[in-house]
Amino acid sequence: MEKRLIECVPNFSEGRDRAVIDAITKSITDAADVKLLDVDPGEATNRTVVTFVGEPEAVVEAAFQGIKKAAELIDMRKHHGAHPRMGATDVCPLIPVSGITLEECAEMARKLAERVATELGIPTYCYEAAALVPERKNLAVCRAGEYEALPEKMNHEGKGPDFGDRPYDEAAARTGATTIGARDFLIAVNFNLNTTSTRRANAIAFDVREKGRPVREGGKVTGKPLKDENGKTIMQPGTLKGTKAIGWYIDEYGIAQVSMNITDIAATPLHVAFDEVTRAAAARGIRVTGTEIVGLVPKRALVDAGRYFLEKQQRSTGLPEHEILRMAIKSMGLDELKPFVPEEKVIEYMIDADRKGEKNLVDITCRGFADETASESPAPGGGSISAYMGALAAALGTMVANLSAHKPGWDERWKEFSDYADSGRKLLDTLMALVDEDTAAFNRIMAVFGMPKGTDEETAARAEALESATLYATEVPLRTMKAAYATFDLLDAMARIGNPNSVSDAGVGAIAAEAAVAGANLNVRINAAGLKDRAKADKLTSEAASIASEAVRRRAEILDNVNKTIDR
Q1: Please, which residues have CB within 8 angstroms of residue 207's CB and are 6 or more apart in sequence?
Q2: CA gyration radius for the chain?
Q3: Which of 537, 517, 535, 384 shows the shortest CA–CA distance to 471?
Q4: Per-residue pLDDT for 231 more than 60?
Q5: What is the DSSP letter of 391?
Q6: Structure confidence by residue, pLDDT tens digits, 93-104
């Protein structure tokens, strides 16, 4: 299961007093388990942009505490700076990174805005995807007139904040208003060109950016820009939605670049932008020689790019993640100017690097896993081993699919086998996650025995926690059974239509899958025996028994096909 992560980039109206900035960032990191990625103060703007990331609930809580601390320390009546601003926390967007949709972030933003207004008394507007009225999708509309316009906007129909609207008072004068919303991830990227001409780089940027370029008299570059009946310059839109771009020359590298912000990566993924800039450059006799990502990037942007370039080569996309990322890096020349280190540029990898001290079974060696299982500790045990056997079954089926996609003479079938390999990768990832989740379920039961049980209330709470933990420990191996059983479809197909030279691998996969199902079934039964709710226990064990019975049949069918192929 993909980890749920969101990013938050609040802008605070203080960029000069380091003690205030540090107090705000400390309130954020103290509030919840979030990773602080960047703190960027600006003296002229008197504004600090803070970037942090984590699981959604943790990020929302950290954002609330940061807004609260800013309201305590920043007095907007004394604030002056070059950047437009409306409040102590001027803007606070929630941004989906992985495992969560923009719509879900928008709903969280609305709830955060309501909480900020209710608990802190700060007037709040909702913008971008969280906007409650269409025109407020635009931040500039919410912030019109800035801080100084709040007295006339508050308690005025159509202008007042979405939450916390009231007559302008001393509290609002101190904190100002905050704008909270949700937007997609912004990717800042520069495309390297084999030219030093800023003018040509700009021309390419105007070709592709959404805004485009002015329409000129006679269609000539030197022609006067044409105006519409309202006196506005008529624009010829560019080819890439949700992008802003300019051309510039970089002394450090001695080249010109097309510098782009991709503000809507759903409309224009990174790889689409790369291909379109490459096309526009080639039309002007220029080559894109590489790509430079500025700041951080969500993993999905690179995974989607890697898969895209693999498909263009008619290669299977059912590969390990690191190979897909390598394809993206090489295809777009992300390492042309300097080494591209995913652990330093990809948000999810940065978080994982911080947690390397946490012990995950799937991250240790095969020898380490075996030694850990053989130790005196009761976990990992049969449940984790069953999940790992299922993962190996999925891995074998995926291997056969990948080998089939590249078999000489089968070139026209690459997509068919690539799809099989993709399904195998998903099952492999699911089962690998269950390796650690099974051990976590066991540890959850053990934790209950450390709970106090002196009073009637404590005894009741302990009993309730034990029932909940036991149910979870029963459901996890049942999920392992279902995921391991799902590998039979892949293995059956590979035994029948896959590369015949690898048919024995499909057979071994079937044996591993059946063993995984049978092993997980034992864990379902032994854990269900501890449930007080016998009706629920019977339902779970009955479902598990049915899956186990079917697994025996599926394994026999697949092995029959495997043996026939081997004996031909």
Answers
A1: 213, 238, 239, 280, 283
A2: 29
A3: 537
A4: yes
A5: H
A6: 999 998 999 999
Residues 6+ apart with CB under 8 A from 34: 28, 52, 53, 54, 58, 59, 62
Measured CA to CA, the distance from residue 434 to residue 159 in angstroms comes to 51
Q: How far is CA 285 from the centre of its chain?
A: 37
Distance CA 257, CA 261 (A): 13
Q: What is the pTM of this model?
A: 0.81
pLDDT of res. 112: 98
Q: Average pLDDT for residues 233-251, to the nearest whole number?
A: 93
Residue 223 CA, chain-centre distance (Å), reads: 46
- Domain CATH number, residue 560: 1.20.120.680
Does one domain contain both 74 and 195?
no
Specify the residue for token string 């209710």.
118
- Model confidence over 480-511: pLDDT tens digits? 999 999 999 999 999 999 999 999 999 999 99
430 neighbors 375 (Cβ within 8 angstroms) = no
Active-site residues: which are they? 83, 438
CA separation for the pair 189, 77 (Å, rounded): 38
SS3 readout for 153-186: HCCCCCCCCCECCCCCCHHHHHHECEEEEECCCC
Domain with 90, as residue range(s), is: 5-182
User: Mean pLDDT score of the chain, rounded to an integer?
Assistant: 93
Q: What's the structural domain count of the chain?
A: 3
Q: Centre a 10 Å sphere on the Cβ of residue 566 and count the other Cβ atoms it contains.
A: 11
Q: 176: phi > 0 → left, psi -120 to 50 → alpha, else beta; which?
A: left
